[in-house]
Amino acid sequence: MSSLSVNHLLGIKYINKNDIELILDTAQNFKEVINRPIKKVPSLRDITVANLFFENSTRTKLSFELAQKRLSADTVNFAASSSSVKKGETLVDTVNNILAMKVDMVVMRHANPGAAVFLAKRVKSKIINAGDGAHEHPTQALLDAFSIREKLGTLKGKKIVIVGDILHSRVALSNIFCLQKMGAEVKVCGPQTLIPKHIESLGVKVELNLRKALEWCDVANMLRIQLERQDIKYFPSLREYSMLYGLNKELLDSLSKRILIMHPGPINRGVEITSDVADSDQSIILEQVENGVAVRMAVMFLLAGRIN
């Protein structure tokens, strides 16, 4: 199988195991490309990609832009904060205006869950979801899966714990879908108030004790506390959160085995993870960033193959 089963990347929920394996294998080839002296390939030379970010983003936006440049695509960048959206223009109107300029692919981040799915039904363009509210963030899950596979050889049978603000995290949901499709076991860990009520219906176990979770896992993915999405107080203070759910070097070194530490970024150093853990040899946070470019190159390359 050498092509995706879908025309868009709207969420991990909508793709299958073969799609994931194809993206990861293609990303492996692109990782070799971006480590060469000449990092560019002409794969998307006649493709125009619009980056529509209706929410602030630094890392994801930069990663997509770099991936597009490495593939020789033409890019259009659109920041909603300085756009007609502020004047009341609808999402469909905004995108249709951009598509009238003959854009082949749209990378979109939006605050509303389902925005990418809504758009895919209404416009003739390939849509890549770069994050929709607290729903999904598929390319982050794919780069996390790629990073684990690169370090451990496989995802099948591996134990991964996702720690922190599960309730507000699109990274957590996409990771759960992706890891399970690849045969990994997933647990979530965090304060009861930040664990969604019915998460066990996704086949995920809940562990409220951080040490127990870390002793169980092969990989710990430490999530950021998303204060900007929290409309009420879910725990007494950041200090108390970090005492119970923050990972420090002392705790890491006291475990009975070595585990991999991941973080989707940006890191709140001293809250969910201390600097000496983030910068330790067990951390693969910077590898995740590098792998993000290769994975996003793979996604755009494979979707471009479905442009008719």
Description:
The protein is α/β, with parallel strands linked by helices. Helices cover 38% and strands 15% of the residues. It has eleven helices and nine strands. It is globular. The model has no long low-confidence stretch (mean pLDDT 92).
Helices and strands in order, then pairings?
Blueprint: H1 17-34, E1 48-53, H2 59-70, E2 74-79, H3 91-99, E3 105-110, H4 115-120, E4 126-132, H5 138-152, E5 159-163, H6 170-181, E6 185-189, E7 205-207, H7 210-216, E8 219-222, H8 238-245, H9 249-253, E9 260-262, H10 275-278, H11 285-304
Helix pairs in contact: 1-5, 1-11, 2-11, 5-6, 5-11
Q: Which tags fit this structure?
A:
Rossmann fold; globular; 308 residues; four-stranded parallel β-sheet; alpha/beta; 2 domains; five-stranded parallel β-sheet; 15% strand
Portion of residues in helices? Answer: 25-40%
Report the sheet with the most strands, covering strand number, pairing sense and barrel closure.
5 strands, parallel
What is the strand arrangement across the widest sheet?
7-6-5-8-9
Structural class: alpha/beta
Order of helices and strands: HEHEHEHEHEHEEHEHHEHH
Low-confidence stretches: none
Mean pLDDT: 92
Shape: globular
Count helical runs.
11
By DSSP, the count of extended strands is 9
